[in-house]
Amino acid sequence: MTSLCKNQAVLLLFLISSPLLHSHLFTHAASTSPPITRPRILFMTGLGSDDDYSDDYLDDHSSPPEVPSPVRIPVLNREARLCPYNPCLENQEPCANLAVQSGCLCPGLSGADQPPHAPRIQALLPISEGDDRGKVEVQWCAPSSVVSGYRVVVEGTDGDALEFGDALRRGSLASLEVGTKVCVVAVNNAGHSSPSEFSCNRYDPPESSEHNVFAWVISGGVALLLLVVITSLILWKQNMCQRGKRDSTDGLGNPSYSTEGTL
């Protein structure tokens, strides 16, 4: 009995230790056992924060987001507009004051520490009415500069100039000869402007209405005289024709009348 148990133990040990049998048994077991599925490992990179995860989760599982109502955003940059300032008009409020009051824009101005730009002469016109009748009025426009006053220089006056305030845009001069040069100069604490082609002009008065009326009177008188002469010639010619006809009629009515003499 003891030997039989030993024999069975030796046989079992042999079977276990045999490599061929072990390989066969393992192959058989592998063929008969169901296939083993290995778990798939996913490596995720670039994960966002917890807030992104929660947002994605809510986007996938929550209801569609509500469309926000339009919000009116105030416009900060308004369209720029120029100040209602005309440099050719007199006694206007300075453009700098208008800009402070309404936020409008003034044309570029050179500072008070720089000599002003030259003004522009607008017209040289003779004065035909009022106390200044016979004088010449000069009109100008202000430059884009800080100006404290104006000077009007007339050619041939040995440098003497007429002074005008910074708010004025016109002044009266003594009677000028045709072709006299007139210049307007702007002045401030830093100096004065230099003469230019548009700050100087020569006096060339337009034809006055009195001259035009006188010309029309002369033309009308000449036309009337010609009309009288032509009418007189026509009447004289008609008179001569009628007189000739009357003489011929009188000669035919007298029987004793003959061109060959008496009968």
UniProtKB/TrEMBL annotation:
UniProt entry keywords in alphabetical sequence: Membrane, Signal, Transmembrane, Transmembrane helix
Region (Disordered): 244-263
UniProt signal peptide: 1-23
Superkingdom field: Eukaryota
Keyword Membrane: yes
Transmembrane parts of this sequence: 213-236
InterPro entries attached to this UniProt entry: FN3_sf
Full protein name: Si:ch1073-303k11.2
Organism per entry: Scophthalmus maximus (Turbot)
Gene name of this polypeptide: si:ch1073-303k11.2
